[in-house]
Design brief:
The complex is a heterotrimer of chains A (392), B (292) and C (289). In chain A, 46% of the residues lie in helices and 15% in strands. Chain A has 392 residues and is an alpha/beta fold. Chain A has two domains: 182 residues, Periplasmic binding protein-like II (D-Maltodextrin-Binding Protein, domain 2, 3-Layer(aba) Sandwich); 148 residues, Periplasmic binding protein-like II (D-Maltodextrin-Binding Protein, domain 2), CATH 3.40.190.10. The two termini of chain A are 33 Å apart. Chain B folds into two domains: 44 residues, no CATH class; 230 residues, MetI-like fold. The longest helix of chain B is centred in the N-terminal third of the chain and has 42 residues. Helix content of chain B is 70%, strand content 1%. Chain B contains 13 helices and two strands. Chain C has two domains: 58 residues; 202 residues, Orthogonal Bundle (MetI-like fold), CATH 1.10.3720.10. Helices cover 74% and strands 0% of the residues of chain C. Chain C starts with a helix and ends with a helix. Classes of the chains: A alpha/beta (392), B mainly alpha (292), C mainly alpha (289). The interface between B and C is large, with 120 and 122 residues.
Chain lengths: 392, 292, 289
C-alpha cells in the first residue's frame, strides 16, 4: 500500500505541476473575461446551463435557503453569472445507478451536468465509459486536492472525477448505552450489545471494517478472499447481535438508544456530537475505510455545460469556498487550506479546525484504507452475498 | 366520458355496446397488465452475458430452480407473515365491522369512514410513525417489557412481531370493508327472530350471521394476504435482516443488483402461487366479494 | 401493534359470556354488546395511534435530522409547511398524478362496470376474471412487469409511466367498486325514460349517471387514496420522478423533517373534510335509491 501510494503521489505531483502551469495561465485569461462577461451572459441566459445533482444536506444553506445570501451557490453566481440548478436527488449509489443506467446505456443525457457518486460508483461509470473528461484547464484549483485523494484507483489518471467531500467509516457509539469506550471491532460483538448493533447498507464500509479486523487488505480486492468477512457478518446476523442495516438513518437509532453502536460515518457523528456529547466516533484499531464522493460529468452534456461545470469545480476547490461547505457538512474536505480558512473564520468554525473527525491526525490516517477497484464479476458476487446476509 | 355516447346506439344494438364500453379500460389492461406480465415471463427465461448488459432470451429455466432453492426461506417467511397478519386482521376486523353494522345506527357511515381515514396518510409514513411509537426507550416497549415472558431488554422493533403487526395494521381496512359490506346485507331481524325462538345470541350469531358474512371474510382475507405477501416496506422499517420477505429480495434484485432474469422468476413464482389461491377462491365464491 | 395482539383474544371471549345465558335478550344487548364496544374502541385507538403520532409530531422541534423523538413544542413547522423544497415538489406531483390517474381510471372503470352489470355478452365471465387479476397480483409483480416492459421498449421512466401504471391498477379497482354498487340496479328505468321520449344522452345524464354517482364517488375517494399512497408500483416505474411517499422513503436515509408530518396531516384534514361532505350529499341521494 505505502509503495503504491508513493508511486502514485509521484505521478500526481508531476501531473499537478503541469496542470498548474496550464491552469494558472487559464485562470489569468478566464478571470478577466468572466468579470466582464458575467453581466452579459447572465442577461442572455446562455450560461444558465449547469445542473448539479448531489446528496441531500451536502452543501451550505444560509437560512435554510440553498441560494441564501453568502452561500456557496449564491457566491458562485455572483462570481461567474452562472446559476446552478442544484438538486438533492441522490440518496444511495445503487438507486442513482438504477436511475441513470437506462439513459446512459443508450447514450441519452441524464439531465444533470454534474452528479456526485461515491468513488467506487464513479469508477463503475468510468469503466462503462459513461463519463466525460473534466475540463481540467478550467479547474486550476484542482491542484489544491489533498494528497491522500490524488489519482485514486477509481480514476487513476484523475481526469474524470474530483472528490466532493470525503469521510471515514468507523465505529459510532452512544456511550450512555454502552457505558464504556469502544476501540475495536470485537467490542461490537460484545454479547452485552446483542440486538443493539447496526451495520451500514453500504457494502464497502461494512465488509471493509470487518475484513480489516480479520487482517484482510482492501487495496487489491481482486487478489483477496472476503469470504471470512461475509461469514463473520452472517454469524453476527444469525445470532441476533446485528439489529439492522441502514443508511444515514442510523443517527436516529443511535440517538434514540435503539443502537448501542454501529458502523457510522465521521461527518454525521461530528454533527450529532454537538447536541449529544455521548455520541462518539472511533476508527477501530484494526482500521476504518476512507471514502469520498466525487463530482463527475456523465456523457451527454454540451461543451458549454462542461465548461460551466469546470468553473463550478474550480470555485469549490478554492479553500475559502471549500471551508464554507465544510463548516456546514462537517466531513473531511478534499481541499488543502480549509483548516486555515476555518481558523480565520473564528467562532464555531474555528473549533472545527481542531476536530479530529474533520482533520484526522496522522495515526488515524495511517489506519484508513480505501477500496481498490473490484472487478465486475467479483463485485456482483459480493453485492449478492451482502444483500442475502443483510436481508436487503 | 365521451365514450358514454356509445349509449346512443347501445340501447338499441346491445350486441356491440358492451364491447364499446369495455374497450378503453380493457385495452389499457391488456397493454399495461397482460403484455408486461408476458414480458416478465420472457425476462425470467433469459440470461445476462454480463452484469450491466441487456438480458438475452434463452429458454433458461435455471432462474426458476435457483429462485426456489436459494430463496425458499424468504418465500416461506412471506407466506407465514402474511398468513398471520390475515388471521390477526380477521380477529380485529370482524368484531369492529360487526360492531359498526349492529351498533352503528345512523353513525354507520361515519364509523366505517373512520376506518378508512387513517389510510389517507401514506402507509409509508404510518409505518415510520410506528418506529417512533415502538422505539426501545418508548412507553409502549416499556409496557411490553412488563409481560411475564418478555425480558427487561425485550424489544418490539426489528422483530417478526413488529413486521406482522405492521402488515396487519397497514392492510386491515381491506379486511374490515368487505366484512362490513357482507354484514350490512344481513337482515338482523333474523337473529332477533332466532332469539325470540329461544336461541342464545351466540348460537344465533354462529348459525345465521357468521355463515352469511363468510364471503366478506374470504374476500378480506385475499385482499389482506396478497399485498402483505408481496410487501417489503414493513420488513424494511420494522424488521431486521432476519425478517426479510420475498418482496425485499425481488426489489433488491431488480433495482439494486440488476439481476432481471432471477428477479422476474422470483416475482412470477409469487404471482403463480397467489393466482392459484385466487382461482381456487373464485371457483367457490365468485369474484363479486372482491370489490371493496 | 401490541394492542392488536392484546385486543384479539377478548374478541372471541366477548361473545362467549352470553353463550351460557338463556335470557332471551335481543341480539347484541347486555355484556356481549358492551365487550364488543370495548373491542371496537380499542381497535379505533390502535388504528389512530400512528395518526395521532404523526399529527403530534408536526408540533415537534427535533434536535437532529429525524423527527421521531419528542423534544419540544413548536409551531414553526406549521408556519413553513413547504420549507423542504424537494418534499413539497414531490407532494404536488403526487396530487397531480393522483388527479390524472383517478380521472382516467374513473371513466374507463365506470364504463366497464356499466357494461358488465347491464349487458349479457360473450366473454362476460372471462372479462370479470381478467378484471380481478390486477387486483390479485402483488404490487411488486405489477411494478416489476411494467419495469420490464418500459425498459425493453426503451421508454424513459418518469411521470408519464407512473400515471400509466396508476391508471392500470385503478381501472380494475374502480370497475369492481362501481359494479358492486350498481348491482341490482333496475335498468328498465332507462327504457321507461326512452319510452317517454328522452334522448339517449339525456337518459344517461339524467337517469343513469345520478344512480351510479354514489358508487363513482366512493370509487373516486378510495382510488385517490390508493394512488397517493402507492409506493411499490411507483418505485418501479418512476425513473427520476419522485412522488411524496418515494421522496419520504429515499430521504429517510438522510433525514425525516417535520414537514413530512405537516404535509401528511394536510392530506388527512382535506380527506376528513371531503369525507364529511361526501356522506351528507350521499345521504340526500340515498333517499332516492
Amino acid at each position: 500500500m505505502t509503495n503504491r501510494v508513493s508511486r502514485r503521489n509521484f505521478l500526481v505531483s508531476t501531473a499537478a505541476l503541469s496542470g498548474l502551469a496550464v491552469g494558472s495561465t487559464a485562470l489569468a485569461a478566464c478571470g478577466g473575461s468572466e468579470e466582464s462577461g458575467s453581466s452579459t451572459t447572465a442577461a442572455g441566459g446562455a450560461a444558465d446551463t449547469l445542473t448539479f445533482d448531489n446528496w441531500t444536506l451536502y452543501i451550505d444553506k444560509p437560512n435554510d435557503d440553498l441560494f441564501g445570501e453568502g452561500g456557496t451557490l449564491a457566491e458562485f453566481q455572483k462570481a461567474t453569472g452562472i446559476k446552478v440548478d442544484y438538486t438533492e436527488g441522490i440518496n444511495d449509489n445503487n438507486e442513482l445507478f438504477a436511475k441513470i443506467q437506462p439513459l446512459l446505456s443508450k447514450g441519452d443525457p441524464i439531465g444533470a451536468t454534474i452528479i456526485a457518486p461515491t468513488y467506487w460508483m464513479a469508477g463503475r461509470l468510468l469503466q462503462l465509459d459513461w463519463l466525460d473528461q473534466l475540463p481540467l484547464s478550467e479547474i486550476p484549483n484542482a491542484a489544491n486536492l489533498i494528497q491522500s485523494l490524488q489519482n485514486p484507483p477509481n480514476d487513476p489518471t484523475g481526469e474524470y472525477s474530483l472528490p466532493w467531500q470525503s469521510g471515514m467509516a468507523g465505529i459510532a457509539y452512544n456511550q450512555a448505552v454502552t457505558g464504556r469506550e469502544l476501540t475495536t471491532m470485537d467490542d461490537m460483538w460484545d454479547p452485552a450489545f446483542r440486538g443493539k448493533i447496526g451495520m451500514l447498507t453500504e457494502m464497502r464500509d461494512t465488509i471493509g471494517l470487518i475484513a480489516m479486523s480479520l487482517g484482510i487488505d482492501l487495496a487489491n480486492p481482486d487478489d483477496q478472499d472476503y469470504q471470512p468477512a461475509f461469514a463473520k457478518l452472517e454469524e453476527e446476523v444469525a445470532n441476533g447481535q446485528i439489529r439492522q442495516f441502514t443508511g444515514n438513518d442510523y443517527v436516529d437509532d443511535l440517538e434514540q438508544g435503539n443502537y448501542a453502536a454501529c458502523i457510522g460515518w465521521s461527518g454525521d457523528v461530528a454533527q450529532l456530537s454537538v447536541s449529544n456529547p455521548d455520541i462518539k466516533f472511533v476508527v477501530p484499531e484494526s482500521g476504518g475505510t476512507l471514502w469520498f464522493d466525487t463530482m463527475v460529468i456523465p456523457k451527454g452534456a454540451s461543451a458549454e455545460q462542461i465548461q460551466a461545470a469546470g468553473k463550478f469545480m474550480n470555485f469549490v476547490y478554492d479553500p475559502v469556498n471549500a471551508a464554507r461547505i465544510t463548516e456546514t457538512v462537517q466531513y473531511i474536505s478534499p481541499v488543502q487550506g480549509v483548516q486555515e480558512e476555518l481558523r480565520k473564520m473564528g467562532g464555531e468554525a474555528a473549533a472545527l479546525a481542531d476536530n479530529p473527525l474533520l482533520f484526522p491526525d496522522a495515526s488515524t490516517l495511517a489506519r484508513l484504507q480505501t477500496w481498490g477497484t473490484i472487478s465486475e464479476e467479483k463485485e456482483q458476487q459480493m453485492d449478492e452475498e451482502f444483500a442475502r446476509i443483510s436481508g436487503a | 366520458m365521451a365514450a358514454a355516447t356509445t349509449d346512443d346506439t347501445g340501447l338499441r344494438r346491445g350486441r356491440f355496446a358492451p364491447y364499446g364500453l369495455l374497450s378503453p379500460g380493457i385495452i389499457w389492461l391488456l397493454l399495461f397488465f397482460l403484455v408486461p406480465v408476458v414480458m416478465l415471463v420472457k425476462a425470467s427465461l433469459s440470461t445476462k452475458p454480463s452484469r450491466f448488459a441487456d438480458p438475452e432470451f434463452a429458454w433458461d429455466f435455471s432462474n426458476y430452480t435457483s429462485a426456489l432453492s436459494e430463496y425458499s426461506p424468504e418465500f416461506l417467511r412471506s407466506f407465514l407473515y402474511a398468513g398471520t397478519a390475515t388471521v390477526l386482521a380477521i380477529l380485529v376486523g370482524y368484531p369492529l365491522a360487526y360492531w359498526i353494522a349492529t351498533c352503528g345506527g345512523r353513525w354507520k357511515n361515519f364509523l366505517i369512514g373512520l376506518v378508512v381515514v387513517p389510510f389517507f396518510t401514506s402507509y409509508l409514513i404510518r409505518t415510520i410513525a410506528w418506529t417512533s411509537i415502538l422505539q426501545d426507550d418508548g412507553p409502549v416497549t416499556a409496557l411490553y417489557r412488563l409481560l411475564p415472558w418478555v425480558g427487561s431488554d425485550g424489544r418490539i422493533l426489528a422483530t417478526p412481531l413488529a413486521v406482522i403487526g405492521g402488515l396487519t395494521y397497514n392492510f386491515i381496512s381491506f379486511m374490515i370493508l368487505p366484512i362490513y359490506v357482507s354484514l350490512e346485507k344481513i337482515d338482523f331481524r333474523l337473529t332477533e327472530a332466532a332469539a325470540d325462538l329461544g336461541s342464545t345470541p351466540w348460537r344465533a350469531f354462529r348459525k345465521v350471521v357468521l355463515p352469511l358474512s363468510m364471503p366478506g371474510v374470504f374476500a378480506g382475507s385475499l385482499l389482506v394476504f396478497i399485498p402483505a405477501a408481496g410487501d417489503y416496506l414493513n420488513a424494511r422499517y420494522l424488521g431486521s435482516p432476519q425478517t426479510s420477505m420475498i418482496g425485499t429480495v425481488v426489489q433488491n434484485k431488480f433495482l439494486v443488483q440488476f439481476d432481471y432474469p432471477q428477479a422476474a422468476a422470483l416475482s412470477l413464482v409469487l404471482m403463480v402461487i397467489i393466482t392459484a389461491m385466487v382461482l381456487i377462491y373464485s371457483r367457490f365464491l365468485g369474484t363479486e366479494g372482491l370489490a371493496v | 401493534m401490541v394492542m392488536a395482539e392484546g385486543a384479539a383474544p377478548p374478541v372471541v371471549a366477548e361473545v362467549r359470556p352470553s353463550k351460557g345465558s338463556t335470557r332471551p335478550s335481543r341480539a347484541g344487548t347486555g355484556w356481549g354488546r358492551r365487550a364488543l364496544t370495548l373491542v371496537a374502541i380499542a381497535a379505533y385507538i390502535w388504528l389512530f395511534l400512528p395518526i395521532l403520532n404523526i399529527v403530534v409530531f408536526t408540533f415537534n422541534q427535533p434536535s437532529g435530522k429525524y423527527n421521531l423523538s419528542w423534544e419540544r413544542f413548536t409551531l414553526e413547522n406549521w408556519a413553513e409547511p413547504f420549507k423542504d423544497a424537494q418534499l413539497t415538489q414531490a407532494f404536488w406531483r403526487s396530487l397531480v398524478v393522483a388527479a390524472v390517474a383517478v380521472t382516467v381510471a374513473l371513466a374507463m372503470g365506470s364504463l366497464i362496470a356499466i357494461a358488465l352489470s347491464r349487458y349479457r355478452f360473450t366473454g362476460n365471465k372471462l372479462t370479470e376474471v381478467f378484471l380481478v387479476l390486477p387486483l390479485t397480483t402483488p404490487e411488486i409483480v405489477l411494478g416489476a412487469s411494467l419495469y420490464q416492459l418500459f425498459l425493453g421498449r426503451g421508454v424513459v421512466l418518469g411521470q408519464v409511466t407512473v400515471v400509466i401504471a396508476h391508471i392500470m391498477f385503478l381501472v380494475s379497482f374502480v370497475a369492481m367498486t362501481v359494479k358492486a354498487r350498481v348491482r341490482g340496479f333496475d335498468w328498465t328505468v332507462e327504457d321507461a325514460a326512452m319510452d317517454l321520449g328522452a334522448r339517449p344522452m339525456r337518459v344517461f345524464w339524467k337517469v343513469t349517471f345520478p344512480l351510479i354517482l354514489p358508487g363513482i364517488l366512493a370509487a373516486a375517494l378510495l382510488s385517490f387514496a390508493l394512488s397517493l399512497d402507492d409506493y411499490i408500483v411507483t418505485d418501479f416505474t418512476r425513473g427520476e420522478f419522485t412522488t411524496f411517499p418515494i421522496q419520504v422513503n429515499n430521504a429517510f436515509r438522510v433525514s425525516f423533517p417535520p414537514q413530512v408530518n405537516v404535509l401528511a396531516t394536510l392530506i388527512l384534514v382535506v380527506t376528513l373534510i371531503l369525507f364529511t361532505i361526501g356522506p351528507l350529499s350521499q345521504r340526500r341521494r340515498g333517499a332516492s335509491t
